[in-house]
Amino acid sequence: MSSAQKKVRLESNSFAMAHTFHTKKFKPGPGPTNADNTPGRFRSAFIRSQTSHNRCIDDVRDQSVEEGSCERRIQKAFQEGPTFTAEKFEALPDSAPMAILKDMLLSDYRHLYQHKKARRQYALKEADQTLYDQIESLCTDRIEFIENLISAGPRTAQPTRPAQPEPLGLPSPILDENDGAPGDTRLFSPADCRDVLKNSFGLAKFLPKQLDVILEAFTACDLLVIFPTGAGKSLSFQLPAVLMNEKFNMITVVVSPLIAIIQDQEMALREKGIKVMSFCSGDGHVRPRFDQNIKPALLYVTPERIQKSPAFMDELRTLHRSKHLARFIVDEAHCVAPVDDFRDAYAELGACLRKNFPDIPISAFTATASPTAAQLITKSLNMVNPRVFRRSTARPNLRYSALPTRSDECFETIAELITERGLEDDTGIVYCFRRDRCEALALFLRKKGVSAKHYHAEMTDQEKAAVYKTWKHGICKVIVATVAFGMGVNHSDVRFVLHCDPPRSLDNYLQESGRAGRDGQPAECVIFYNPRALRRELAEIPGRDSRAVKALRQVANYCDETLVCRSRQLLAHCGESTAAGKLCGACDNCVSPKRAYDLTADIQQFVSLLECIQKKSGNPITALQTIDVFIGRNTKWIRVRGYDQVKGYAAGRHIGLELAKIMITRLIFWGILGEYRILRHDIGAHYYLRIERDLAKFKGGRSLQIGLADNREDSTVETGRGKSKSKGIDRRRQRSLSTLTDQAFLNADYVPSSDSESED
């Protein structure tokens, strides 16, 4: 059997075994036909299926198949049209088992999946690129049809709740001018709230908008509260819970994502003498018992406890029937709609609460939520006409920086920043993406004389609690952690938050960097990033337009942008506007202004050149190979392929090698260009360029500029590639490091935060 015939047989077997593999992967477990079989559950399963589908499509791209064989198979797979039609969806019973829904979904594109044991890596033939585009187009159309069908709404009616807020228990409105005189029938007055603030929480006054949120919590309306870290989110739901408990013996249930957050808040409340209980997913089958006469003000739980504990749900229903259930609080609500799947229990939380407790209001609290994320939160939690309270995410005491750094120098650069700037005696957090890097960096810092410990999800609860305790009490100064550490951390004097690896989204970055400077004093927030590594990550994520790709592109653009104030970038992400021309005066872009290079014409010529090359030969081409043609290098490789005769050859000779590399990286981060990986059995993996977005639509009449320092050492066409391989990024890193001086920070236009009197 020839090699080509083997490839055809392998390809045929891969598609034939697809349905067995995918059905086994998403086989539903046993259990009662209840909330697990709702359309909401199906929507979550569909999203996971779509992710796997995109990954398999990328695998198809890397296969080499006999010309025409795959095309016939694709036509056969789609010749009968979609089986998952609107009519069939509406005809299903309300409690249709998940197995039926999944089979209907998978039957539409089962031939596009490959058995995991049959996967092999081959080169993609040049003639197969058109076929790959056809496959992706067919699948995208089918997925959009199913997704639109599901998003049109569930087949069963949702519990109705009052559109207008009503007081809980008593009909009279809460008016600020009422002072509790005899005959006053409203629930609580602002004076009542201030008394609890002083007597129970030991605070003198409310922070901006805190009292508004607290008073609204005494109505039956849903709330979405978006306050930055340090703005008093926790107090905004804890104080109403105390009042409702004191007067009506009611319990407020707080759903929190991490046991560490629950333990931290529970300990702080107990120290204040506030009645509180917690039941987490790791408590086994412990059944909560509530005293008939004395009930806790707050009950902290993980989402898994609500989803997977029938005994706990029975207790909540008992509280509901006896009218002792006040409100559900979803803390760190951004976890409900993350970029990647955080936890299924969070995605299904809204459907579960609304089904079992349709008349109990829900409050969602988060420190960061872009307009899109806010919509996802309210939709996922099935909130009805929620009242939205938002405060600006601006943190004027935080100084943001982003340093391009080679991966092999990142540890050394972080150690230099901490030791040379005198931060070794300050409290700080360093975030890493992988657990092994956490341990390695913590060990490296200890060798450099920095008191550091690691923290990640593979540690036991006892180990994590011990590390957190030593850090909070100042025994350990620096904690090196994954994203498992961050949400809900209440430590006021964190002076720096560093990211050894870029965060996965700007929402995550706002959460993690927000741990710094909660006392209102200056603090540093620095991201160390490798542009090349970010490009590779973007190429490896399945789905060109997936939420994960879009989120990482936003992070990449934030890091690589050198002209726009970083605070303004973060505010724009959150949907906030700043005064025209107003800068923070503290970030690296404001302290060290860059020279703007208008590359609009060069970018247009580069994209046109890439189009010409691909039309001329059809061969894949790498970024560096395209740059060589663009800047006019006279090499044998270019002459043999005739690229020196292509229109646009040497059009970028005047900008040089370094600026051309920066330009192409920015085009990838903007999403105009993309890279894809091809695995060849003889030379390994290579990444090739393709055009992913129409340049004219992206540009929209504006100029495309890139900022570089005025003292940039321009590389010319004669510069050897080996000589300039790392000098550019090293110069940029050194210039960025030189701006991180106390003097530059103190000279910045810094306005201390006034929101430091209350705790989060």
UniProtKB/TrEMBL annotation:
Q: Which GO terms describe its molecular function?
A: 3'-5' DNA helicase activity; ATP binding; DNA binding; four-way junction helicase activity; hydrolase activity
Keyword Transit peptide assigned to the entry: answer is: no
GO cellular component annotations of the record: chromosome; cytoplasm; nucleus
Keyword Repeat recorded: no
Q: Where is the composition biased (Basic residues)?
A: 722-735
Q: Where in the cell is it found?
A: Nucleus
* Reactions the enzyme catalyzes: ATP + H2O = ADP + phosphate + H(+); Couples ATP hydrolysis with the unwinding of duplex DNA by translocating in the 3'-5' direction
Arranged from A to Z, the UniProt key words for this protein are: ATP-binding, DNA-binding, Helicase, Hydrolase, Nucleotide-binding, Nucleus
User: Where is the Helicase ATP-binding domain positioned along the sequence?
Assistant: 214-387
Start and end of every Helicase C-terminal domain?
A: 413-571
Q: Which Gene3D superfamilies match?
A: P-loop containing nucleotide triphosphate hydrolases, Winged helix-like DNA-binding domain superfamily/Winged helix DNA-binding domain
Q: Where is this region: Disordered?
A: 154-181, 715-736
- One GO BP: DNA replication
Its EC number is: 5.6.2.4
Q: Which PANTHER family match?
A: ATP-DEPENDENT DNA HELICASE Q-LIKE 3 (PTHR13710:SF155), DNA HELICASE RECQ FAMILY MEMBER (PTHR13710)
The family note in this entry says: Belongs to the helicase family. RecQ subfamily.
Q: What is this protein called?
A: ATP-dependent DNA helicase
Q: Which organism is it from?
A: Mycena citricolor
